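ingest -> fold -> write
write: protein_1
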Amino acid sequence: MSGDVSDEALALMDIAALAPLIAGSEVSPVDVMQSQLARIEALNPDLNAYVSLYPEAALAAAKEAEAEIAAGRYRGPLHGIPMAVKDLFQVAGMERTCGSRILAEGVANSDATSVARLREAGAIMLGLLSLHEFAFGPTGINPIVGTARNPWNTDRVCGGSSSGSGCATAAHLAMATLGSDTGGSIRIPAALCGVVGLKQTYGLASRAGIYPLCESLDHGGPLARTVRDAALVLDAIAGVDEADPSTAGARVADYTALLGQPLEGLRIGVPRDFFFDRLHPDVEAAVQAALVVLDGLGAVVEEVVLPFTREASQGWNVMAMGEAHTVHGTHLQNNAADLSPDVNQRLRLGEGLSATDYILARQTQARVRREMAGVLERTPILAMPTAVIPSVPIDTGEIMVGDKSVIGWKVLGKLTRLACFTGQPAISIPCGFTQDGLPIGLQLLGPWFEEPLLLQVADAYEQATEWHQRRPPLAV
């Protein structure tokens, strides 16, 4: 027994609740780690969240954390906290595969910058998490290393590409995780697994040591069970890094500063066109109910028009496919047969693009950013669904919406690409469940480097509802 918390229950606690107990030596990081590893041992064989796990190294780090804290060297709220990262991040002592049979890097001898910063804050790395191969797909289906299964229904996908990050966070197989987001790969699994997923402003957190997909669109950020926990992780990883020039203009803030503050008078824009087209009826009902909650919290919820949305989606396609093909052109030439069929197919979409196509897309990106800035001057927060459908079955990848069969990989990223194209921060938070018990996500977008405001709104909604308190029906 650790203080007033049973060892079995430690893995079920949120970071913000557990941290004061660790700080006061009421709970040992070793007991926390043992509880976490026991849960992983019991559940991961069925969920497949982890590609690789390093329990001995994690326990050794927990003992070091225990000794540091006992000696009065407490580092902060992540000290002694078990975390895991997508198998796209370089982690010293671990072997990255990117969910592919092609990559053969061997064991890494250094950390990605974000991982190094988490370690500096005292977090402990458990292992590497499953993903859509090379992070290039929104479902998380991976025939090579296996597919992470949704903790709410193990016949369903977790969403991609950070599938293992969504799964591990929802199933309490890590207290928080890192994923990457190029077109929605943090927010989609967060929505489909019922957790919080934050894509911070482009350039706020370093991508150094994260295997690239699209340089102009890639982000690495947190998935957590609460908004406050996500803020604590962002506190640790945000900031300038000489190894990533995109961070040169990073503006760091206290990401917990506005949590708990009222929303009275804050204008929240709702773009009905495009973002509310052909939604699954349960998704539409849940998001509409969430907007009513925000209105009840004192926000001014009003409709806005984003006339550039379709152009932005087309521009994202050109940039993403062109840059991904540049990264993986050699793989297509030499190892095409070893790629997942869907990844092979998607990578080839970049083959026919011209320099003119790419330059025009970048020009569209600059214009859309200017126009988005104008919208945000009046309504600094935008609210919409994270995904048009809930999770799809792993075996078919399709779901019925009314009398129509909808293919998951074609639509799951539809609503998340805009924030990657503009580079503005976006977050997905749980806002309900389908009649079949599958999670639904509410997506919020905010102004560049205004994460404290975005987190304030997300936290206010979270605290006014009970969705984040629900747990998947998993038996240990």
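write: protein_2
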Amino acid sequence: MKLPNGYGTVTKLSGNRRKPYVVKEGISGKQKPIGYTATREEGLILLAQYNNDPWDIQTDKITFQELYKLWLEKRAVKLGASNQSSLKSAYKHCVKLEKVKYKQIKSYQMQDCIDSCGKGYSTQGAIKNLFGHLDRFAMELDIISKCCSDLLTSAPIPETSKEIFTDEEVARIWDNQKLEWVDSILFFLYTGFRISEMIDLKTETVDLEAGTITGGTKTAAGKNRLVPIHSKIQSIVQKRIEQSKSGYLFEYNGKKLNQTQYRELWAEIMGKLKMQHTPHECRHTFRSRLDSAGANKVCIDRIMGHKSKGTGERVYTHKNIEELKMNIELITN
């Protein structure tokens, strides 16, 4: 019986073997062996099972690397782009386990990947998160019977009292604006964007002529809001646009930036500036400075993406765009 093209093959090997029939898949085009059987009939059954569900076969032999690639194809695609990027970065710290059969991996080996990564709480948390995803996927495939990732620990998120940047600190940041990535701190301090919002900003969302950026996520009031470009950071925004290779306003090595990468960069900047702040404290600082400057409460909510009784329908007429610009320029230092 001739099998369909690309279906695979069942071939008898020479010599005296207990399982002389080798079964090879044909989907990848590389004729990779997927098993050995005692009879041709058993081989055809195995091949039929494989073609019915080609990614759920020989689960007892699947390696960490193979499971990860399968998870990327079948499960990771359902996650947000930022989450996917963070987990892909986390995988780089687990390459020591690539060739190990997944069912043989113990919690102490997973924990060693976390402990030896040499990174902070954000990266450690991402590695732990990755193992959790892979364990749950492995459970689905009956590769393992328990989740070793349940025993993992990572560095806790540092407690923060949400301290705002002082005027002296803002001045010091301006004095060091030539340092790499310091421009991102200034961008935060004069726009109020969140990290997740900043890394999603595309250059096409910036209107230099109108002096506005359209962006924002998380809440209904925050999505696609209009934020005026403060005059103090216009050159920063323009330079970022001119240097962009990926189409994103802030990128890393010519590609879209992810939160894990940025938090690591942030930690380096804070070390150089001898400061202890979180990126989100820029947002608190921005609101505090607007409030101290006497900005209109409704305008503050519009710029921050907060819902308030006075915002009503978010329709950006020329009049209220000018009002937003006037209020943001109240920040003078």
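write: annotation protein_2
The chain has 13 helices and eight strands.
The CA atoms of residues 50 and 57 lie 6 Å apart.
pipeline exit 0
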